[in-house]
Amino acid sequence: QQQVKQSPQSLIVQKGGISIINCAYENTAFDYFPWYQQFPGKGPALLIAIRPDVSEKKEGRFTISFNKSAKQFSLHIMDSQPGDSATYFCAASIPSGTASKLTFGTGTRLQVTL
Amino acid sequence: NAGVTQTPKFQVLKTGQSMTLQCAQDMNHNSMYWYRQDPGMGLRLIYYSASEGTTDKGEVPNGYNVSRLNKREFSLRLESAAPSQTSVYFCASSEWSSYNSPLHFGNGTRLTVT
Asked: Which of chain A's residues have a Cβ under 8 Å away from the Cβ of B33?
């Protein structure tokens, strides 16, 4: 059962453009929503994260927008650069237990062209 | 600081063979995790260890066993490998035993079972 649905599967954006990746979740118990960035041959690395008590979080060129009523959140990459070419995963976790048990989306492969 | 180190990087097994994937972190983190990554399925949690001395099942534990050897090391064992276990395996750690503690991933072990 896929609890976090991510789209699109792949995305091609020109340098300087805006990249937008969307995620939707079903479980309203989710309380923490991080995005991870993965380069080929490497493990994922935390990019940015948000809690549902805020609607937007910005870190440099990366912004998470969160819509609690629609159960959706998205990653916006402004002024996309070739170095942003990577696979991006959204994720979510529930505030229970004693570990960071993330449920990941299926990933979006972003290619930024010159 | 090496972060999270996984060995081996690549492995080919025949059906029915066994092997142990090794993972060590040098960040003094409390929690450790094993994920598998398959095309189109994102990352799925196999097992985790919230703290030294404890282990728990994740989303896809069947066919695997784990050992939290000490605070630094967390191994994953395949007792009788099956082609369905062909995947890229990632070990991760988190500083706190909390649902919103960022995960730090190793660079993965690519396993092929023939």
From this structure: 99-101
